[in-house]
Amino acid sequence: MRNTLHEPVDASRVPRFAGRTTFMRLPAVDSPEGLDVALVGIPWDGGTTNRAGARHGPREVRNQSSLMRRGHHVSGVIPYELISVADLGDIEVQPINLPEALRQIEAGIAAICAAGALPLSVGGDHLTTLPVLRAIHAHHGRERAQQLGLVQFDAHSDTNDTYFGDNRFTHGTPFRRAIEEGVLDPTRIVQIGIRGSVYASDEHQWAKDQGIRIIYIEEAVELGPQGVIAEVHRIIGDSPCYVTFDIDAIDPSMAPGTGTPEIGGFTTREAMAMVRGLAGLNILGADVVEVSPPFDLGGLTALTGATMLFELLCVIAAGTKRQGPG
To answer: CB of 66 within 8 A of CB of 58?
Structure first.
């Protein structure tokens, strides 16, 4: 039986500055039951090593997502006609106890997966992605010993080992931990837009040794969005994958509100085109992370995050249509 379809509030009837603040102005629900996609916030930045503030990201992305309309101007996809999607609220996260926070995030995503919904989350710093991946892998892949692929838009590889002594869990280490734990298949990881100064000349060597495909920003410029996406499809193939979009993949002139900005990044137009090109991948979940409103200007970064969230939602909805409605 097809799940109930939910519609956003009509901005031509209720102005965007009025009413309840939810992702895409969709209904707020208390349970993922009956949803194909659960939009959920993860308001936590306990893995941040310098400029905190991404814990405020979900609230402000919700606010700016009121500017999203129903349909995609290029693909023609109207996600709300294809899938059941609503705002599940925020996962309850302990702000000062890192191990407990990771357990809470994993449990929250596990409940979404158990209900048959796909998690589409907004963080939070990039460490939030690790427990999300754990939960998805446990639900979909562990019994079949199937690891997830990863499409990562980012300025940083996030495959470092430790920070400040032996601290193994920060927003700079999530994908190293996920590989070590057998959650991710490193030969099906594509990191897009990596750039900036490094701690050591061999900082990315561990990632390369595992088989991760790093597309540095210089190569991405040479390939162009379509060339990058062709490489993504070649590496990821038809196997299950996760998509993570760190907002610092975009140049800070267009997305200044983030914890670790790096100049020389993608334009918003390039980023939209690349996310749009993910259509056809077997996506089991996705997120937008590292939006930090305290460092934002006029809500620009949060609006960018909301736009990337909508792009991901359209890609996922189109994929669900191909597979048949729930």
So the answer is: no
- Residue 145 neighbours by CB under 8 Å, 6+ apart: none
Q: Which residue is listed with tokens 């499809």?
A: 233
* Residue spans of alpha helices (H) in the chain: 57-64, 79-82, 98-114, 129-140, 174-180, 205-210, 217-236, 268-276, 300-323
Burial 148-177 (b: 16+ CB within 10 A, else e): bbbbbbbbbbbbbeeeeeeeebbbbbbbbb
The Cα–Cα gap between 285 and 118 comes to 6
Domain layout of the chain by residue ranges: 23-323
Residues of the chain predicted below pLDDT 50: 1, 322-326
**What is the pLDDT, as a whole number, of residue 4?**
86
Provide the pLDDT for residue 324. 41
In angstroms, the CA 52 to CA 123 distance is 12
pLDDT of residue 15: 87
> 193-211: b or e for each residue (b if 16 or more CB lie within 10 Å)?
bbbeeeeeeeebebbeebe
What distance in Å separates the CA atoms of residue 316 and residue 240, rounded to the nearest whole number? 13
Coil/strand/helix, residue 297: coil
pLDDT at 326: 38
CB contact at 8 A, 210 and 179: yes
76 in Cβ contact with 26 (< 8 Å): no
User: Which residue type is seen at 271?
Assistant: A
Would you identify the CATH topology of the domain 23-323?
A: Arginase; Chain A (3.40.800)
Q: How many Å apart are CA 206 and CA 160, to the nearest integer?
A: 8
Whole-number pLDDT of residue 325: 38
Beginning with the edge strand found earlier in the chain, give each strand of the sheet holding 148-153 in spatial order. Answer: 85-90, 37-42, 118-123, 283-289, 241-246, 148-153, 184-194, 213-216
Query: How far, in Å, CA of 267 to CA of 165, rounded?
Result: 36
Full-model pTM: 0.95
Cα separation, 143 vs 147, whole angstroms? 10
